[in-house]
Amino acid sequence: MGTRRSAQDVLQCQICETHVPLMHCDICHIHLCVTCVGEHLLDESSEHKVVSMKKRGLNPTCSKHFTKLCELHCEQCDIPICLECVSSGEHLGHKSVQILKILETKKTVLQRDLQELEKFIYPKYQDIASNILAQKVDLNKNALKLTTDISRYGEDFHREIDIAIKILKSDVDEIESKHLVILNKQENEIKISISEIAQSIANLMKLLDSNDVSLVSAYKSRNAEFKRLPPKLIVTLPKFTPQKINKEQIYQQFGSLPALSIKIEEHGYTMDSLGAMSSTQDRPLIDEPRIITEINTEFKIFHMLGNVSCPSDDEVWTCGKDRIMRLYNLKGKLVNSIRSTSGNIPGDITVTQKGELVYTDYHDRTVNIKKNAQIETFVNLRGWRPRCVCCASSGDLLVIMVSDDKEQEKVVRYSGSTEKQVIQFDEKGQPLYSAGCCPKYISENKNLDICVADSTAHAVVVVNQVGKLRFTYTCPPSTTMKQFRPIGITTDSQSRILTADLNNNRIHILDKDGQFLRYIDNCHLHDPWGLCVDTRDNLYVTELKTAKVKKIQYYK
C-alpha cells in the first residue's frame, strides 16, 4: 500500500525521492532536483522542457500535438499553439505572440475586472441595499403617520363613519404590504447579485494567483452584466385628503387613498466605471493601429455587409442588404441568425443594455426588438420612415427618421414606445440634418452628446442632450484625397468620436469637442461602413463589399 501524503508533506524529487525539487518538467509533469535533471534529460523516450518550479505550468500542452508545449498564442483563433502548429501551415497568415505576453495581458484584464468589482460595482450594490432598508424604515414611519391622520379625522365622525375608518386603515395596511413585497423582492435580488459579485471577486483573485493559461484564457467577464444596475424603486405613499362631512355621502366625504403607486426609474442608480475614470486620464492612442481579428461573414457582394453592433466582447451582430441579421463569434462562427418579420431589408441594428437586438424596417415604418425568441414591434410610424438607431446610456433609443417626401429628417428619442424628444432644428429654426436618400448613422457619446454622421452634408453633426448644436465636423481639408463622406459612427469610453470615411477608406478619430486627433488608415480598409466598439475600446469595422468585419486595436 502506498504511503499517504498530506498537503503539509515536503515536496521531493520524483526520481531520487530525496532532495527538494527546484526544477519541473512541463512535458512529463514531474518535480526534479538539480542533480537529477541531467538523468531526466537523457531519457529520449519523450521530449522534455525543464523549468524552475516558479515557472512551471506557464506553457500548456498543445491540444493537437500532445508532446509539445505551446509557446505562442494565435490572436485570430484565440488559442495557444505550439511550433509544430505553426510549421503545419494551419495558422498561416495569422498573427501570433508569445504566450507569456498573452498571460500578462489577460492578467491585466483580470486585475482591471477585480478592481472594478471591488471599488465600484460591489460598493454600489451595497449602497442600493442600504437605500432599500432606509426606504423600508420610512415606509413604516409614513404609513403610521397616515394611519394617525385618518384616526384623528375620524374622531369628528360618530357611528356612521366607523366602517369608513376601518376600510381606509385596511387600505393603508394593504399599500404598505404591497410596497414591502416589492421592496423585499428587489432586496433579495440585490443580495443575490452581491453574492455573485463577491464570488466573482474571489474567482478573479484565484485566477490572478494562477499560472494556468487554460483557466485564465477561459475566463469570461461578467462585469458588463453587473454594470446593468437594477431599476431604482421610489416608494410614494399617498396623501390623505379629508373632505367636508356629509352623512349621506360619508364614504366620499371622508376621503380616499389612491391605488398603489411605485415609480420605477430604470436608471435611477448611476455608477462611474473604470472606463469613466480613465476618460479623464486621456488614455493614449497606439502609434500604429493594428488588426486583431478578421471575421469573414456570409454576406455576398451583391448583399453588401453594412452594420455591426456588439452584444458582448466576444460576439458581433451584423446586417447588410439581405433580410437576415447574423451573430458571429470572433472566430467567425455563425452563432445565430434572424430574418426580419416583414421580409424587408433591415435599415440598421443596435443592441440594448440587456443584450436585446433592435432593428429598423424602413419600408414597414417600424422599429422592432427581439425579446427571447420573439420579435416585437414597439414603434409604428406614419408619414415618417426610420433609418438608423442607437441605444442611449439611459436605455432610451435614438432613431433617425426621414419624412415620406424625403424633405425632412429628425432624431426622435423613445422610452419604450413613448416618444420623449424630437431633435430637428437649430436655434435659428434651420434644419440640423440634410434631407435626402442617404442613411445617417447615430451614436450617443459618454457626455450624452448625440452624434450623427450626415453623409449627404459630408459632415458629422453633434448636439447636446437637449438638442442644441455643439459643433459640425467637416474633416481637415488639406489631408483629404476625396470628398469626406462619413458613414458609420461610434464613440468610446474616452468620449472620442470615430467615423468611417467611405470615400477615403479610413477612420477619423475626434475628441468630444470635434477636434481631429488622427486617422486609422493603415489597416487596409476597403469601403468601411459600420462601426462599433466593445467594452475594451476595440473597434469593429465592416467592409461593404469584402463582407469582412475587422477588429482593430487603436489604444495602448
Summarize the structure in words.
The protein is 25% helix and 31% strand. The protein is of the alpha+beta class. It has helices at residues 34-41, 83-87, 99-154, 162-208, 213-217, 223-227, 250-254, 274-279; strands spanning 23-25, 30-32, 50-52, 72-74, 79-81, 96-98, 232-235, 262-265, 285-296, 305-309, 315-320, 324-329, 334-339, 349-351, 357-361, 366-371, 374-380, 384-391, 397-403, 409-415, 418-423, 440-444, 450-454, 459-463, 469-473, 486-491, 497-501, 506-510, 516-520, 528-533, 539-543, 548-555. The longest helix is centred in the first third of the chain and has 56 residues, at 99-154. It has eight helices and 32 strands. The strands form nine sheets. It has a four-stranded antiparallel sheet, with no helix packed on it. The protein has a four-stranded antiparallel sheet with strand order 10-11-12-13, with no helix packed on it. A hairpin with a 4-residue loop joins strand 15 (357-361) and strand 16 (366-371).
